[in-house]
Amino acid sequence: MTKLLFFVLLGVAVVAWFKSQGRPRRDLGKAKPSKVEDMVRCQVCGINLPRSEALLGHGRIYCCDEHRRQDQG
After folding, report:
1. What is the dihedral sign for C-alpha 35, 40, 41, 42?
2. β-pairing, 55-57 with 48-50?
3. Domain coordinates of the chain in residue numbers?
4. What Cα–Cα distance (Å) separates residue 35 from each residue in 10, 26, 31, 38, 61?
5. Which of 11, 12, 25, 73 lies 20 to 30 Å from 35, alpha-carbon distance?
6. What is the pLDDT at residue 71?
7. Longest dimension (CA), the chain
8. Cβ neighbours of residue 57 closer than 8 Å, sequence gap 6 or more
């Protein structure tokens, strides 16, 4: 019975070792901070999009040039 338990534990240890060798190690202390960007809403369709992708027209926010022309025309 002791031999069986020994071989089972040995097998688990070998499997765990092989799994750890296949993964690239990551250093969590040197993780790059992610950029967080404000989201804004299009005045015509209501879609949310990042502020950097939004178009401005007469103080209002739009998702595309077509909506900007549609709202002002």
Report:
1. negative
2. unpaired
3. 37-73
4. 45, 20, 12, 10, 21
5. 25
6. 82
7. 86
8. 68, 71, 72
Residue with tokens 């299009």: 42
Q: What is the pLDDT along the chain (73 residues), one digit of tens a residue?
A: 899 999 999 999 999 988 888 766 666 666 666 788 999 999 999 999 999 999 998 889 999 999 999 887 6
CATH fold group of domain 37-73: Wheat Germ Agglutinin (Isolectin 2); domain 1 (3.30.60)
In eight-state DSSP terms, residue 30 is G
With b meaning 16 or more CB within 10 Å and e meaning fewer, what string describes 33-61? eeeeeeebebbbeeeebeeeebeeeeeeb
pLDDT of res. 25: 64
Which amino acid, one-letter code, is at 56? L
The pTM of this model reads 0.51
Place of tokens 């190690």: 25
